[in-house]
Amino acid sequence: MTENRVYNFAPGPSILPEEVLQRARDEMMNYRSCGMSVMEMSHRSKMFMDIFSSTKESFRSMLRIPDTHEILFLQGGATLQFAGIPMNLLRGGTADYAVTGNFSGKAAKEAEKYGKVNLACDTGATGHDRIPAQSELKLSSDARYFYYCANNTIYGSEWHYIPETNSTLVCDMSSDILSQPVDVSRYGLIYAGAQKNMAPAGLTVVIVDKSLAGHAMPFTPEVMDYSVLIKHDSMLNTPPCWCIYMLGLTLDWLKTQGGVEGMEEIKRERARRVYAVLDDSSFYRPHVLPGSRSDMNITFRTPSEELDAAFVKEAAANGLVNVKGHRITGGLRTSLYNAMPMEGADALVKFMKEFEVRHHV
Ligand SMILES: *Cc1c(COP(=O)(O)O)cnc(C)c1O
Question: What residue ranges of the chain have pLDDT lower than 70?
């Protein structure tokens, strides 16, 4: 690791691969001898169009996205899609929402403005400490789509199966996209904000089955209408050029790591090492039940709030930063995204063990 850099366990914006940052730095002032940086280019220039199309191509091949689906590079964050999805897909009907955390809850609430929302499940009563089994999902007979969030960034739970539903599957993969292979053909729509596992904040990737576009509610802003965005290849207005370029660099780096298959092996092992410490300990208390745990965001507590605070402080003094839990949940959270090297997880594990020895009464 470069001197003076820390292991950043932030949930998002979050760690990026060092190789990506170095390449961005090297290409910053004079991208491929064109005399300017990517940030300064016209989005309609040949130079940028090449970046755009190669990033899109690379994203398509990385996730093996079938030709039935279009890839959109948008702004507005994952949050804008909480409204964009019902505006485009709900058509005034009913949709099933699985609420397993904060962001799916917000998405369900937003969707209520545009039609009827049926809660297929809500794990809020037990503090979103698990993902429901397939048999627990209450599906409505006439749903236009079934919405869920694959990885709950704040609570630290993750769906380890694709739900079987009688309607179009829609999924928020903001915090686990590109961490494992996905059978995209099973989904009508997948979307993800870039700042967790792909690129800097400012880009949202939407993968949408083209046959679903063209049914937006009449008041839908043009810039949120999937059929318009598809028609203009994400360039109805200025796209987040720099973030798209950065995503391209991340995809190049991912290829050197064995792609999403390679990442899946690494993330399983990285998370396994941290959960092993939690499960071997009577000091730490993991928040999420086995079988529902996220490989990306690990949530836990020490015996007291004072010790949680001491953990955050002492970890930072050891170069392990941003391990504080979300303000909704309190406690601790360590995010282990693609860019976190195994050495980062090992340094965390070592610190956790030492902290327990020092503070266990
Ligand atoms: C961070 C996050 C969001 C919100 O993303 P914004 O880009 O801030 O709108 C939504 N869903 C999930 C799963 C997230 O992790």
Answer: none
